[in-house]
Amino acid sequence: MASWHERLIERAVKPTLKLSPEEFLSYARPKCKQIVVGDAFEQLIKSKKKLRIKLGIDPTGAEMHLGHAVPLMLLRLFQRAGHEVHFIIGDFTAQIGDPAGRSDQRKELTQKEIERNFRTYTKQIAPLLNIRKARVHRNSTWLAKMKLADFFRVLGAVSFGEVAQREDFRTRIKSGAGVSMREANYSSLMAIDSLHLKADIEVGAIDQLLNFMHTRDIMAAFGKTPEVVLMTPLIEGVAGDGRKMSKSFNNYIALADSAHNQFGLIMSIPDKLILSYFISFGDVREDEIQELDRFIVQNPFEAKKELGTLLVSLLHSQKAAESARADFERRFSKKELKTEDEIVVRVGLPVKLLDGLDVAFEGAQSRAQIRTLVRQGAVRRVMGDSLEPLRDESMEISTDTLLKVGKMHLFRFRKK
Fold first, then answer.
1. How far apart (Å, rounded) are the C-alpha atoms in residues 208 and 104?
2. Structure pTM?
3. Residue 341 CB-half CA count within 13 A
4. pLDDT of 43 higher than 90
5. Nearest-5° angle of CA 81, CA 83, CA 89?
6. Among 99, 196, 86, which Cα is nearest to 144's?
7. Taking Cα atoms as reference points, which of 57, 41, 62 lies closest to residue 90?
8. Residues forming beta bridges with residue 244, ordered by sequence position
9. In DSSP terms, which residues pair with 88 in a beta bridge?
10. What is the pLDDT of residue 34?
11. How far apart are CA 13 and CA 222, in angstroms?
């Protein structure tokens, strides 16, 4: 039987998927944390109509990461099944900033910052979405031109009491942070996007739940069929500490990062995250989840390598994935190191071992952690083909000293 990454890559590289409604639902449902409304979703898929699928992202930062890609993978599934996908880059709504889950108001972006971020987004999502076939919009195209009277008609469909009862808003008001009227109307602007596109289905993250519910209410008030909403989970960051993947927590994998870095970061995730990552980024059917879970439990290290190979294949190429995997196995499994693996550390020499390593790790390891590595014999001087353990943290190291620390680090010390 083919390995998991081979199975999933074979599916992923197919530009089109000829699936029955039941097969499509089997691929789509595992990627969703919540569906509003499930019966309506099934009816739309079983209708075999070409559906209009919407996903919006505000360009609030220049760099996208795997957390942003989770709903994109669902949008990709719709596109490959022949539906009409609309990717909205919220250059207008980015000036406000989505308030969902925020404890304070977002920093207001300048138009120059929004434009700079906008230019990077289509390039970053291109490996996951066929941009030539997708319909990419700026929502300023219609929002910036909207007449005030038309906007007030939309606001008339929204209850202020419902907006004020949002948990995130009540928390901010209670703390004295306050909520701006612009933020209070953010979900109304999302609804205008959906009305403009006549969306059948919207895809987005679960933290957008309240925005999506207001959108559905406004669509109904305007006599339109409320869109079905497919909400994807907020995947945990690579640290596995319960916090969502975010640049703020420095626990993310950037879509534009190198293949080798992406593979290495996947190998660093806790075992508990492997299954959720596979489901989010692979085309995994409902009836395959138990089998995949058994494979992960029995061999989590191999499962991570399969996951890393899948992700790098999606974001770069199969050749790049094979190279990244081979490089990882050479360095960390076979323990083979090459000159190009060395990290040159510039420091005033001679220097005490502890101080030199403190500079080399650049804060990634505390001094207490470095001391533990020294005591455990994990700090070794490379002497030709042999390794000499260094157990005295106060010993001095001189220029051109090469140290191997644990399995992963090779530091070459040079005079500053």
1. 16
2. 0.81
3. 17
4. yes
5. 120
6. 196
7. 57
8. 236
9. 56, 137
10. 97
11. 40
